[in-house]
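Aim 2 progress update. The chain analyzed this quarter is reproduced below.
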Amino acid sequence: MRERDATSITADTAAPVGGSQREARGGPSVGAAELFDRALSPSAIARRGFILTSLGLLAACASTGSTQSGGRTASGSQRSDRLPEGLWTSEGKLPPQRWAQPVQPASRSDDVPPAVARALEPKNATVRATDKPAPAAPASAIPKTFDGKVIARSQWTSFRPDVKEMDPLGRPNRITVHHTGNPYTFSDTSIADVKDELRHVLTGQQGAGHKDLAYHFVIDPAGRVWAGRDLRYEGRHTRGENERNIGIMVLGNFELQRPSQAQVITLEKFLKQLQAQHKIKRGSVYTHKELTANLCPGKSLQSHMGKIRSRLA
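Predicted structure tokens:
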């Protein structure tokens, strides 16, 4: 349906309010005397005032709509350049919007008493030692190779076994050397890789029914010594021969690879250290295969054991 112009909108809108349908469609108008004779009620006067106001707004909207539709009115004639007074600027535009401006804060130095200003100044929070989380051990705290110290178990795992189900070791009187024996080689020396391998071995041995890592100490390819099972408890590294027996695992499968030079050097140093600490004789230092029939610690590591033992006390 074609859009109606302002005149038709005004006539149709005014028709229901006062007078007859004939009058709204252009019939004879009502005289002034007759209009006053009708004695309008206050409510009728209010309704007519509302309608007159609405008609004014409709006329303004119609003028705006014709301006936006190409500069012509509905009848097709060129629109007039004159616009209703009061709503537009001299250029024919709406006046700019006016927004409330934010109140500028008072200058603290000029308008606020010094005591209040000092109280408003931000203060540094006080952090107590008990509020700080336990710092992670930096990588620099872990040596590049064996320095005579064993790396704490907490450096590679937070797992704590249920010691109620573990047998006490007592005073150790022998040492047994092992390899990992997994069906792959391992020669990584980075701290992150070694930690991952230790956790992998622990998970595998737990899956085999052990309560914890089966060995008391581990020597990685860089020659570092890591703490495994707590030395107060028996290991599960040599079937039937774990009583009072310290278990040392050298990371790698030495049926498939050779031990690193660092591992061989550290193994000898650490064996001497354990001997002195626990008063263990050279004749009580074994490899796994020397106590039970198997391939551990692998032929490549086993070949070094003769020379290593010959230099033990």
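The mean pLDDT is 76. DSSP finds nine helices and five strands in the chain. These observations will guide the mutagenesis experiments scheduled for the next reporting period.
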